[in-house]
Write a structure and sequence with these properties.
By secondary structure, the chain is α+β, with helices and mostly antiparallel strands. Helix content is about 40%, strand content about 25%. It has five helices and seven strands.
Length: about 170
């Protein structure tokens, strides 16, 4: 099932060292969030940023409120991520802080749930584009194989750090 997540900014900065097309997620008001799991391939789970860029493009899907496009899912910038860098959006808790923003998120979320199969199909299609350097839209996409390698290294590095911490202090679980 599709959900919305916040992602740790440090993980995004790490991915940006492997591919500059990975989008910035830190903003002054609300950080960019991601939708996922949009694709699972090679044992990796992919997440795609939601953007308030509204124009239809070959590598995105528009999100509608009635007949009006209000956002897009930007598959060209999707990336794989481990669960430990993600935090699921909790609309109920957020509602107490910014009701108007949560209302918008709920509309986007409900629409994404209604087109979940299309989301997965588009993610798979764009993944093929991002892996094919000869495709005419490839230059607009992240290079997904490099991001998959980065994910493997990130997990290995953080798993090692976690294992060392646990060996020193078993209570740190």
């Amino acid at each position: 099932m599709i959900d919305f997540y916040d992602v740790e900014p440090g993980y995004v900065r790490y991915l940006q060292t492997f591919d500059r097309k990975v989008p910035n997620i830190e903003y002054t008001s609300n950080n960019k969030f991601i939708c996922g799991v949009v694709l699972e391939i090679h044992g990796k789970q992919y997440y795609a940023p939601i953007s308030h860029f509204k124009e239809a493009q070959r590598t995105n899907l528009q999100i509608f409120n009635g007949q009006q496009a209000i956002a897009t899912i930007r598959f060209c910038f999707m990336f794989p991520a481990p669960l430990f860098v993600l935090k699921k959006k909790k609309f109920k808790a957020m509602n107490e802080v910014d009701r108007k923003y949560v209302d918008l998120l709920r509309v986007e979320y409900d629409y994404c749930l209604s087109i979940e199969n299309r989301i997965r199909q588009k993610a798979e299609s764009v993944y093929r584009i991002g892996c094919n350097k000869k495709h005419k839209y490839n230059k607009n996409c992240c290079y997904f194989p490099a991001l998959e390698q980065a994910l493997v290294m990130y997990i290995a590095e953080h798993k090692t750090i976690e294992e060392v911490a646990m060996a020193k202090d078993p209570k740190s679980k």
